[in-house]
Amino acid sequence: MPANKNAVTRYYILDQLLANRYHHYSTEDLVRLVNEELAEMNQEPVSRRTIELDLNYLQGDPFYAEIQSYQIDDISQRTLKTIKKSCHRYADPSFSIFKKEMTEDEKYLLNEALSLLGQFEGLPNLEGLETLRNGLNVKTDRQIVSFTKNPLENSNLFGELFTCISQRQVVELHYHRFDTPDEDRKTVVHPYLLKEYNRRWYLIVAADNDGKILSFALDRIDKFVPLPSRSYKEYDGDLNERFEDIIGVTLIDGNPLQTILFWVSDFSKDYVATKPLHESQRHYKGEREMELRQQYPKLEGGAFFSVDCIENYELIRELSSFGKDLLVLAPADIQQKVRDRAAAQFQAYQAL
After folding, report:
1. How far, in Å, CA of 207 to CA of 328, rounded?
2. Is the pLDDT of residue 4 over 70?
3. What's the farthest any 2 CA atoms get from each other in the chain?
4. Main-chain dihedrals φ then ψ at residue 174, nearest 5 degrees
5. Measured in whole angstroms, how far is the alpha carbon of residue 187 from the centre of its chain?
6. pLDDT on residue 150
7. Would you say residue 328 lies in a domain?
8. Entry pTM
């Protein structure tokens, strides 16, 4: 047995990598990934020779792991030519040197979680969920939770993309635009997040060529091709922070954060108060409300609110959706865009 203090840690990391069927790992890949994990734990890196000894040790007593060595065609990053790459993995993807039976408490908690997940109407079925539910004898007597369903033409797309994200796979995305539905566009991306907004699902990714964050509506994705030999780039930070200052999913780089002040009529003020347009929404009362009523004396009743947002298409659409029951007071550029949208709508009705 290789004798050093982080041996068990290395075995745990290697065990996960060798069971992974979504990537192809050479010895060099295993050395790099093990050392990245060790660095996260403030442990010393190891050599290629150490990993080779670890692989030999796992195949002997007491683990007897059956490790396959196989070759794939890969593109050399240096010469851009196709080369043969030798890789390693468990012959049985379900094998683990750390596998143990679940306790009764663990089975109960898993049963409850699967039972709840199975009752979520509108969530696409993830591959293998029903098999797992049946294997654990999970039964759902009645529906308790219901979501509004937005059906996808390709019902497997959500679950397949979910798997790519969880397994950190680079993919070649094939998609189309609404204005050119027959034109097949493709791009290589690093998928990070599935996000729902206004009854539509979006895939949030980083472009492979420049790292720019992009969003693709799932109903415009035709297919995708996993690229298991490509190295996956993690997002540096919390991706959800990018959406904290916007409504929707469109983030326009360079647009400033603005405080948008608006008035809502008596008819809609309770709705807006209890269902905020954005998490930053403030409802002005007391002295500040009195100041605003003096500043805008023609506004009778209603209530004053504000949100702190970066301007995008979804913000203007949301502010315009209330019609005359919501009036933007500041800033002037946001007010003008809402006015222009209302004027264009009025002209369209006039033309009928």
Report:
1. 36
2. no
3. 85
4. -110, 125
5. 18
6. 63
7. yes
8. 0.71
For the record, the structure tokens of 81 come out as 């030519």
What torsion, rounded to 10 degrees, do the Cα atoms 238, 239, 245, 251 define?
150
pLDDT (average), residues 169-183:
88
Distance CA 14, CA 29 (A): 11
Count the domains in the chain.
4
Q: How far is Cα 280 from Cα 276, in angstroms, rounded to an integer?
A: 8
Owner of token pair 């222009």: 340
pLDDT tens, position by position, 144-168: 666 666 666 556 788 888 889 988 9
- Cα distance between residue 244 and residue 306, in whole Å: 15
Q: What is the rounded CA–CA span in Å between residue 3 and residue 350?
A: 83
What is d(CA 216, CA 202) in angstroms, rounded to the nearest whole number?
5
Domain membership flag for residue 2: no
The CATH number of whichever domain residue 177 belongs to comes to: 2.30.30.520
Tokens of 137: 């004898």
Write the DSSP symbol of residue 233: P
In this prediction, residue 3 has a pLDDT band, given cuts at 50, 70 and 90, of very low
Nearest alpha carbon to residue 229 among 193, 188, 187, 175: 188
Give me 254's structure tokens. 């360079």
